[in-house]
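Example 3.2
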Amino acid sequence: MKELKEIKWDALLLAAFDILLGTVVLIFPETTARTLGYLVGVVLILAGAVSMICYLLRDAHQNYYHNDFLSGLVEIALGCLVLYKVDWIISIVPFIMGLLVLISGCSKLQDVIDMKRMGYGSWTGMLILAIVNVALGVVLMANPFEAAALLFRLMGLALIFSGVTDCVIIFYFAKKIKEYFREIRRAEKLLEENFREERENERQED
């Protein structure tokens, strides 16, 4: 039971962290996105510095066919770019997603045109889906940073939902575990009472 309680509190702390993090992301999506971008930039610079230091400390014969120095320079350059253009880097993700959604919508439009030309089935529903698809792609590409903020808000909601459902499941599971052990103790008590009654009956018979 002690171990179960420790697991329960560990899980509750993790769920509370999810809810707290989700709330922060939901309320401050732009700040969270920038912070994440800065962290990525710093990690890239540190990784590049480590690669270059390893290259310089390694024996010259061991550096043959190793590109640690070049890869370190590239990582540092990318890290500096991320730090310098963090808003631009953040906006790239929804822009690329928008481009993929736009391509998917155009592909659906082509399917609609083909269905219309062949006179095959009802194409109205497919046309509506294709138009919505294209519109979403255009919106994502036209407002990439706002789209990134929306994506982070959705991430925040997902974290909050995950934390809340974890709490519900933990308390429900704990309740069921308590009921299970209560039933076990009750069954053990009944067995002990039955055993005592049998012993008393045996003594009386003797």
